[in-house]
Write a structure and sequence with these properties.
The protein has 445 residues and is mainly α. The protein has three domains: 189 residues, no CATH class; 135 residues, no CATH class; 28 residues. The protein contains 20 helices and five strands. The strands form two sheets. It has a three-stranded mixed β-sheet with strand order 1-3-2. Helix 7 packs across helix 11. The longest helix has 29 residues.
Length: 445
């Protein structure tokens, strides 16, 4: 017993307990207690709607998510390349204040007080912690919000542009506004705009903010007459969400429950045509209204240009980040990615008036569409086109359709292939006739 106890004491004596740095423990506890800043705890709430675009999407699509001429909100506030329009924001704010002080007796303090009352609610809309004090935050909301509202009123001729206003006289500026106002990182909450619009509203009745915004962006979206008026009652989270919601067809809601049988991704245009599935342009209020019936995919036309590419990518990014919004644009981007593999698929869609290419050559459009679907989370069984995906897949699997369509595609797709097939058929018939005549003459000379 004595020998065992002594050996145990020797072992315990040999074990050295490492010392822990008190400063390290203090630093770790401090980091544990600090809330996240880059992606705050509130980013997962339904109230949060303005996000930084995920780095994985930026690596694929480049700088298309960043504003090029004007900053709205905190994420790009103070960027050196955006200072030119920042100076004009103050000019527009001054003209708005001069008008409302004269008509309604309102001063700058009234606007700042209104923003201070909404500060907490507005901060919750951003996925990052905004490192501005209350005064700076209220100033930013007033300056950016009043600039947008004043521009919308001037574009609708409710307020006159000043003589020689460069924003109007320089033709290149307004198209950049269309794109920059609809970038995910470049937003302020819509209820902020509504409050500023309400405060600065003139006594004479004017269109609502939603209608003014839709009319402003209609110069870029170019929708049929009368479509915009249908969306005056929308409740968007910001300007990007407003235009996105106005394009979502009410006749194509997302399913509420998962399908009993899983849907499948479909093939590209070239393979679908070989299987007897055709594509046809159709007239609808929005390009998202895609249908499949009678072996034909009906797609409303879409113009691929600088505005559309920027808008589509930012809508997809918003749907990837916001947990409560529908995924209509993600689904449409996936559909295009399925249909287009090479420039030949783009060429066919353009020939059928489904796509108008104002972006570049057909190869560049194909690359854009393929990149649009990269690193994007997509649930095919819960998307608004789940039935279409499955119907096209089942039609494609039908062997009779595939064989007959493949025969027509090979021999009757072009006039030359038809002539070659017809000539081969005539030659075959002549050969058979000659053989029959030879055999007949042999037995009955």
């Amino acid at each position: 017993m004595d020998e065992n106890n002594s050996s145990t004491e020797e072992i315990n004596f040999a074990i050295k307990i490492p010392e822990v740095s008190k400063d390290r423990v203090l630093l770790m506890n401090q980091k544990i207690s600090e809330p996240p800043r880059i992606l705050s705890n509130g980013a997962g709430k339904a109230s949060c709607s303005i996000f930084r675009v995920p780095k994985s999407l930026i690596e694929v699509n480049g700088k298309i998510y960043q504003p090029h001429i004007v900053s709205i909100g905190p994420y790009h506030r103070g960027d050196p390349q955006l200072k030119m329009i920042d100076e004009h924001k103050w000019r527009y704010l001054g003209s708005l204040l001069a008008r409302t002080e004269k008509t309604r007796g309102l001063k700058l303090e009234d606007y700042l007080i209104a923003m201070a009352e909404l500060e907490e609610k507005a901060r919750e809309c951003y996925s990052e912690t905004i490192h501005l004090n209350s005064d700076e935050f209220a100033e930013m909301m007033v300056l950016d919000g009043c600039f947008i509202i004043e521009l919308l009123r001037k574009a609708a001729n409710l307020v006159l542009f000043e003589p020689d206003d460069p924003i109007l006289s320089m033709a290149w500026i307004i198209p950049f506004f269309y794109r920059d106002f609809l970038r995910l990182e470049n937003q302020i909450p819509f209820f902020i705009l509504e409050k500023l619009f309400e405060i600065s509203e003139s006594k004479s009745k004017e269109p609502g903010l939603t209608l003014l915004a839709l009319q402003f962006f209609d110069n870029a979206t170019q929708r049929p007459e009368g479509v915009i008026e249908k969306h005056q009652d929308l409740k968007p989270r910001h300007l990007l969400d407003l235009i996105r919601l106005s394009l979502i067809p009410r006749s194509h809601p997302e399913p509420r429950s998962r399908r009993k049988t899983p849907a499948h991704i479909i093939h590209c245009v070239s393979k679908l045509r070989r299987a007897g599935i055709n594509l046809r342009a159709t007239e609808e209020d929005t390009f998202l209204s895609v249908k499949f019936q009678g072996g034909v995919i009906e797609m409303p036309p879409i113009t691929i240009d600088d505005f559309t590419t920027s808008f589509l990518l930012n809508c997809v990014s918003f749907e990837q980040c916001h947990k409560s919004c529908t995924k209509h644009f993600t689904t449409y981007a996936t559909l295009l990615d399925c249909l287009v593999n090479t420039y030949r698929d783009v060429e066919f869609l353009c020939d059928r008036n489904i796509m108008e290419n104002c972006y570049g050559n057909d190869g560049e459009v194909a690359r854009f569409i393929n990149n649009m679907g990269k690193d994007v989370a997509f649930d095919i069984d819960m998307c608004y086109l789940a039935d279409l995906f499955d119907d096209v897949y089942q039609y494609y699997r039908n062997s009779w359709h595939v064989q007959w369509a493949g025969f027509k595609y090979t021999y009757f797709d072009t006039p030359w292939s038809f002539i070659s097939a017809f000539a081969a058929l005539v030659l075959l018939l002549l050969t058979v006739a000659q053989t029959v005549y030879t055999v007949y003459s042999f037995y009955k000379p």
